[in-house]
Amino acid sequence: MANFQFNGAIMNFNGITFGVTSFSEDAGSRAEIDVTTSSDTVRRSIIGLKSVPTLNFGFIYNDERSTLDNALVGCTAANMTLSVTKDCAVSSLIGPDAQYYLMGYNIAGDIDGAIVGTIDFLKQ
């Protein structure tokens, strides 16, 4: 049985290596299209197109702001990798040729705490 561990995870986007604290992936979902007509006795539906996958990461801020701002202004996707540990060895969970658009980021801080952030991506 393979065990994937998040401890030791390394995320790199657009040349920045982030100190990630968490991540989540929405692999996409399909819409349900209602095709019920007035002559039907029960609702009918068909499946729609799959939505685009998204990723969200929590990270410890380490002066990445200018590179992130440039990625928000740009019109192209950039490479992303996410390496995790699997059975005590490094395993690639995302990448090495995965292309993602930076959709936005937030940073915040509290007294007696590190400046942290969240960052959102859309798969190309």
Fill in the keyword field for this structure.
124 residues; mainly beta; two-stranded antiparallel ribbon; 8 strands; elongated
Produce the secondary structure layout.
Elements: E1 4-13, E2 16-26, E3 30-34, E4 45-50, E5 54-60, H1 65-73, E6 78-86, E7 89-108, E8 116-123
Antiparallel strand pairs: 1-2, 1-6, 2-5, 3-4, 5-8, 6-7, 7-8
Overview of this protein structure:
- This protein is mainly beta and 124 residues long.
- The protein is 7% helix and 61% strand.
- The protein contains one helix and eight strands; from the N terminus they run βββββαβββ.
- Strands 1-2-5-8-7-6 form a six-stranded antiparallel barrel. The chain has a two-stranded antiparallel sheet with strand order 3-4.
- The longest helix has 9 residues.
- The protein is elongated.
- The relative contact order is 0.27.
Distance between the termini: 32 Å
In terms of structural class, how would the helical and strand content be classed? mainly beta
Query: What gross morphology would you assign?
Result: elongated
User: Care to count the β-strands?
Assistant: 8
Low-confidence stretches: none
Count up the helices: 1
Summed over residues and divided by their number, the pLDDT gives a mean of 90
Fraction of helical residues: under 10%
SSE succession: EEEEEHEEE
Strand content: over 45%
Q: Round the Cα radius of gyration to an integer and report it.
A: 19 Å
Largest sheet: 6 strands, antiparallel, barrel
Strand order of the largest sheet: 1-2-5-8-7-6
